């Protein structure tokens, strides 16, 4: 179908509901002379008038959602349940948008109980059956299933037609397979469950191999054992429900017959009067060819210093994306940023390793729809640099005054990554700055992810250009340096543009959501500290790691031989299938359960159950697996992670990876090294201090128990902490009614298990397994515990009720931790969410405390002139590298500063140590 389809039978359907939100978030807030918000109305009217002017159609209609509840909510009550209500400034604009449609002579259609997408599907099918063509004005992936030889879509922003080849390029499947693709991958925005762990690439691969969703599900027994197969097995029903949710109904009775969808028969005088009332001077000027100059009729614009006369939001003039190839062009963009006093910045690189990455280009946005890309290091097919690119040194000279200009706010998404890249490549550290990823995180931790693609979907209703669509995937993936500059410009400029739009939406919400101080005083300043920590890295002893790898290999061989002697067979210990057959078929051990594939389950829970029943072979298998994991994850992998330029490993701290505010680390993960095992201690010995330096470890003692005593206001526990008593002995004395003096170590260990188990919402069954007693006895312990400490029971009940009512819990310092699943009808999921609700304020409170401490320690080290660096944070522990002669001073400073990081009703206690390696220091 050509883009100029036959005028005789060509229906244009506008996804009105989708566009209203897009226009609202794409144009800064405007009000008409009466004070009514009209930015979405302005964008909608502009678009409709352009469509009318340029249309190649015989019929046209604008389709709207009639309400939030549809038949899909009966299938799956959680469908779209998490979507927030429309912003207050948007609500009055819905009626004005429909009024604009009426005055322009455009039929508007909505139907109670059905989504706009279902109406679009039904009208498109009816038009094709009538022998016509249909163009859908939308870029929503949910509508792509409708594309065929007679139906296409048009992206309203980029004015590009979307046909089958574009769908395949973006998602890897044909339009007819989009329903199966979405059913597998799910949709966090609409609460479509899908299958965990199945993303778009995996979903496309499965569909191309097996043909459809049902084909994929039918093929599960033939797939190799893997986590993916297990997820597919366990979530078949979720996938089928998802299929029903995303499949559009195309057989609805048409509220208005197609023959009555003639368009554009509005009357001029009422339209002109309405445009004057709204203050749409620029639209009126184009419509009447005469300028209306009354100042009082010009809309008042907020949240932006851009002129109120926006260009057409959906026209080519609206998306002003430019490739910058000269210094004069670049200076023009920098001047714009200095005039508006803000800009969004994004870097493109040749690697995800920010510490070593080389900049390929920089993008910059100064207003919604107005962005540029400055290529630096793009290459031609022969490996030589593409022509017309600015030298890196010229960019540094041009950008550094902007980056250090205190009057210009620099906006990033995941600023830490960009900071590392910029500094590594010679740029100044940008300041002041905002980070839309962190702004989203403090507002919505636990509700959804905070990557740009997902936030763009949630807040802008816009699918961003995928990285894979430019670089390919797998072995065929190319470096971003090899991407054509025109395509790189479209992608990179969009990143900066979306970042700016997200900032305009999310930044004003910080105060109303009461998280402004959390963002400005904790999370944002922490970005620079973590940037420095990642840059500094920590020294590794590669020879020790090699020695440990060999030692672990030898131990594994001995253990493997012992296990095979016990079974009387040689088999692959790393094969779950073979292991299951040995344990449950050959040896006949009890308690085995077959998975849906028919194979025996042999995960850690199964093995631990066997161990608890006294089967020694299970202990040996668990020990072998632990060594195998340590070897592959640490002793082997750490050597590969050593940066050849620094001889250090540079972990990456993830600031948005947990619900509670805890940091996590990757590449390598330094937070999962076993602390109490002998092997874990040996691995920590490989982390060493530089010559003339030592490592100092400062660790909060029992911080979550202290927080529990504080938030639950438990007099006995608070007294113990104030008196510096042994808290576990005190608990044992209270629960078991025995004196502390002469207490058996076993009794104290039991009390310790109860103390920590309560924090994590442990069950009687779980506690019984830990203590080696029956579930009934363990329940008696728990009941006695709650009887002695009724404040804990009250805290747990109140916290769970708060979570169910609000959907989130608060840490003692005001951080919101959203608890997904707290209101679900599914028992296991709800039970997990209830345990999470109990623990989140404590774990989140501990995260808040350590972050306060990091900020305070960073300042204290500078104020005291110490030659020390903060290198690693592991939950409640900070690890420093310091000159040997200053180590004692740093220990004293750390205890003083960290213990006063926050004020509680009980004291905080920090334990610190010094050593040449991490194990010694800890």
TrEMBL record:
Keywords: DNA damage, DNA repair, DNA replication, DNA-binding, DNA-directed DNA polymerase, Exonuclease, Hydrolase, Nuclease, Nucleotidyltransferase, Transferase. Residues 321-511 form the 3'-5' exonuclease domain. Its EC number is 2.7.7.7. Residues 9-264 form the 5'-3' exonuclease domain. Residues 291-312 are annotated as: Disordered. CDD domains: DNA_pol_A_pol_I_C (cd08637), DNA_polA_I_Ecoli_like_exo (cd06139), H3TH_53EXO (cd09898), PIN_53EXO (cd09859). SUPFAM superfamilies: 5' to 3' exonuclease, C-terminal subdomain (SSF47807), DNA/RNA polymerases (SSF56672), PIN domain-like (SSF88723), Ribonuclease H-like (SSF53098). Residues 680-886 form the DNA-directed DNA polymerase family A palm domain. InterPro entries: 3'-5'_exonuclease_dom, 5-3_exonucl_a-hlix_arch_N, 5-3_exonuclease, 5-3_exonuclease_C_sf, DNA-dir_DNA_pol_A_CS, DNA-dir_DNA_pol_A_palm_dom, DNA/RNA_pol_sf, DNA_polI_H3TH. It catalyses: DNA(n) + a 2'-deoxyribonucleoside 5'-triphosphate = DNA(n+1) + diphosphate. The keyword DNA damage applies. Belongs to the DNA polymerase type-A family. PANTHER family: DNA POLYMERASE I (PTHR10133), DNA POLYMERASE NU (PTHR10133:SF27). This is DNA polymerase I. It comes from Commensalibacter oyaizuii.
């Amino acid at each position: 179908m050509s883009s100029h389809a036959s005028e005789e039978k060509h229906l244009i359907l506008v996804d009105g509901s989708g566009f209203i939100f897009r226009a609202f978030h794409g144009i800064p807030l405007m009000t008409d002379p009466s004070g009514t918000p009209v930015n979405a109305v302005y964008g909608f009217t502009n678009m409709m008038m352009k469509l009318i002017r340029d249309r190649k159609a015989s019929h046209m209609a604008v389709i709207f959602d009639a309400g939030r509840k549809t038949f899909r909510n009966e299938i799956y009550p959680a469908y779209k349940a998490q979507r927030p209500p429309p912003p207050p400034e948007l609500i009055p604009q819905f009626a004005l948008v429909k009024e604009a449609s009426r005055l322009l002579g455009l039929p508007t259609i909505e139907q109670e109980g059905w989504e706009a997408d279902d109406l679009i599907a039904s009208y498109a099918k009816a038009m094709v059956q009538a022998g016509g063509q249909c163009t859908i004005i939308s870029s929503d992936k949910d509508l792509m299933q409708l594309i065929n030889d007679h139906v296409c879509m048009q992206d309203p922003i980029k004015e590009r037609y979307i046909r089958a080849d574009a769908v395949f390029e973006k998602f890897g499947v044909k339009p007819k397979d989009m329903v199966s693709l979405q059913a597998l991958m799910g949709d966090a925005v609409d609460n479509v469950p899908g299958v965990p762990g199945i993303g778009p690439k995996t979903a496309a691969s499965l569909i191309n191999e097996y043909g459809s969703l049902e084909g994929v599900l039918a093929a599960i027994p033939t797939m190799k054992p893997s986590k993916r197969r297990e997820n597919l097995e366990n979530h078949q029903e979720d996938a089928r429900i998802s299929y029903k949710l995303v499949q559009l109904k195309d057989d609805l009775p048409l509220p208005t017959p197609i023959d009555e969808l003639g368009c554009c028969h509005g009357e001029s005088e009422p339209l002109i009067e309405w445009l004057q009332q709204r203050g749409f001077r620029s639209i009126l000027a184009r419509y009447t060819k005469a300028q209306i100059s009354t100042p009082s009729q010009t809309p008042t614009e907020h949240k932006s210093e851009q002129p109120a006369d926006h260009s057409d939001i959906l026209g080519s003039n609206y998306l002003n994306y430019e490739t910058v190839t000269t210094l004069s062009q670049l200076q023009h963009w920098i001047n714009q940023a200095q005039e508006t006093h803000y800009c969004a910045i994004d870097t493109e690189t040749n690697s995800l390793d920010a510490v070593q990455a080389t900049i390929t280009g920089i993008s910059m946005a100064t207003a919604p729809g107005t962005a540029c890309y400055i290529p630096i290091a793009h290459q031609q097919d022969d490996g030589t640099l593409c022509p017309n690119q600015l030298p890196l040194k010229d960019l540094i000279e041009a950008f550094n005054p902007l980056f250090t200009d205190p009057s210009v706010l620099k906006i990033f998404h995941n600023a830490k990554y960009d900071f590392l890249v910029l500094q590594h490549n010679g740029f100044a550290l940008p300041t002041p700055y905002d980070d839309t990823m962190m702004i989203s995180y403090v507002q919505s931790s636990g509700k959804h992810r905070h990557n740009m693609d997902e936030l763009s979907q949630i807040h802008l209703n816009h699918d961003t250009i995928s990285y894979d669509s430019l670089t390919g995937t797998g072995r065929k993936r190319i470096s971003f340096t090899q991407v054509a500059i025109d395509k790189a410009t479209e992608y990179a400029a969009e990143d900066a543009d979306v970042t700016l739009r997200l900032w305009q939406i999310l930044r004003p919400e910080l105060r109303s959501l009461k998280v402004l101080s959390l963002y400005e005083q904790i999370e944002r300043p922490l970005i620079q500290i973590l940037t420095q920590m990642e840059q500094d890295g920590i020294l590794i002893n590669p020879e020790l790691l090699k020695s440990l790898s060999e030692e672990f290999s030898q131990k594994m061989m001995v253990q493997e031989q012992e296990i095979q002697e016990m079974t009387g067979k040689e088999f692959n210990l790393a094969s779950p299938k073979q292991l299951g057959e040995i344990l449950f078929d050959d040896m006949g051990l009890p308690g085995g359960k077959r998975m849906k594939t028919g194979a025996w389950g042999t995960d850690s829970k199964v093995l631990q159950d066997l161990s608890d029943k006294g089967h020694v072979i299970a202990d040996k298998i668990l020990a072998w697996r632990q060594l195998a994991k340590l070897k592959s994850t640490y002793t082997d992998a750490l050597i590969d992670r050593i940066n050849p330029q620094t001889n250090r490993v540079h972990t990456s701290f993830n600031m948005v990876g947990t619900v509670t505010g805890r940091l996590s680390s990757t590449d390598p993960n330094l937070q999962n090294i076993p602390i109490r095992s002998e092997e874990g201690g040996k691995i920590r010995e490989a982390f060493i201090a530089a010559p003339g330096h030592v490592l100092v470890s400062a660790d909060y003692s029992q911080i979550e128990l202290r927080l529990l005593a504080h938030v639950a206001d438990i007099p006995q526990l608070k007294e113990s902490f104030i008196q510096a008593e042994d808290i576990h002995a005190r608990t044992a004395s209270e629960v078991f009614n025995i004196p502390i003096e002469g207490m058996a170590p076993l009794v104290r260990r039991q009390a310790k298990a109860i103390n920590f188990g309560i924090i994590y919402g442990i069950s009687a069954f779980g506690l019984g397994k830990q203590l080696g007693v029956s579930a009934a006895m363990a329940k008696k312990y728990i009941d006695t515990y709650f009887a002695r400490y009724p404040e804990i029971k009250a805290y747990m009940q109140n916290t769970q009720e708060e979570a169910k009512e609000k959907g989130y819990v608060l840490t003692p310092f005001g951080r919101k931790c959203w608890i997904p699943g707290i209101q679900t009808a599914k028992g296991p999921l709800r039970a997990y969410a209830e345990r999470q609700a109990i623990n989140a304020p404590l774990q989140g409170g501990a995260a808040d405390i350590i972050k306060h401490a990091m900020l305070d320690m960073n300042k204290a080290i500078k104020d005291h002139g110490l030659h020390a660096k903060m290198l690693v944070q592991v939950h409640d522990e900070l690890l420093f590298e310091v000159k040997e002669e200053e180590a004692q001073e740093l220990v004293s400073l750390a205890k003083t500063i960290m213990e006063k990081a926050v004020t509680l009703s009980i004291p905080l206690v920090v334990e610190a140590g010094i050593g040449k390696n991490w194990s010694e220091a800890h």
